[in-house]
Amino acid sequence: MNETLLIFKNGPFNKYWRIITSGNTLEVTYGKVGSVRSVKRKRFSNSDICRRESEKQIKSKLEKGYVVVQSSFQLTMASTMNEELFWELLELCKQNENSFDEQQQWLVEQLTKKTIKDLVVFDFIFSQQFRKSFTSDLWAASFIATGVSTDECFDGFRAWMITLGKEAYEAAIKDPETLLPYLEELREQGEQPQQEEILDVASLAYEEKTGLDEDAFYNLYNQYVHDLYLDPVLQFDWNEFDHESLKRKFPKLWDVYGEKPFK
Asked: Cα dist. 95→89, 260, 263 in Å?
């Protein structure tokens, strides 16, 4: 399968055009960035004819001023949202609200003021950052702190980590024991290191803006972000039933939470 993605910038309006060839089938998707797409498909008698037709259409678009982009992410980045603003929003959220529910509500409120394109890019950046913490070491730290080793618990733990801000998040990826002061603060507040609520803020903001549900948001997301990522198979060097292996791995975390995890 071959894919070419083009974009045409015209003031505040950006148009995209994507062509995909697979064997003797050609598919063209086009529209304004952030709007509902249009799709055309055509089947040819053989793959060579299909390829030549694709090349012809690409040449025509380039002559009209379209430019090639390297990924769907570059397309979505035709918005005001970027990684710096992403972390800035999370930092402001932490400063303005205390409870997890309040933080979710605050972020949704702020995102509803953004464009649909911004919501897509925010969710893309969140996904990119979230993946960085899918490590064996952090899963071990999550298990020590919570006493639970399920996928859902680990996701909630990593979502909580992101809300700590960029500096704390990146430090924890390198050394999970840097989470100790944040965990202690959380325990004093009677909260859990679980913030799965934050995972849905972009889709909730989309629902607020449009009245459409989560499925509609992710259908739109998938139009612009061909995200085929799958979490890797982790190689664990620890065992939840082997407490000594966990104690050796993270002695500081174990001393505090090994026998008395969050409940």
From this structure: 10, 29, 26
Q: Domain range holding 53? A: 2-70
Question: Does residue 78 belong to any structural domain of this protein?
Answer: no
- Nearest by Cα to 229 from 122, 145, 128, 78: 128
Helix 151-163 × helix 166-174 angle, to 10°:
130
139 and 228 housed in the same domain: yes
- The predicted-structure confidence for 138-185, as pLDDT tens digits, reads as follows 999 999 999 999 999 999 999 999 999 999 999 999 999 999 999 999
Report which residue type is found at 174.
K
Letter string b/e over residues 193-206, b meaning 16 or more CB atoms within 10 A of that residue's CB: bbbbbbbbbbbbbb
| Domain count for the chain | 2
Cα distance between residue 73 and residue 1, in whole Å = 19
Calpha distance 84→235 (Å, rounded): 32
| pTM recorded for the entire structure | 0.69
Q: How far apart are CA 206 and CA 209, in angstroms?
A: 5
Residues 11-36 have pLDDT tens digits of 545 778 888 888 888 988 887 765 55
- Do 64 and 113 share a domain, yes or no? no
| 87 and 49 fall within a common domain | no
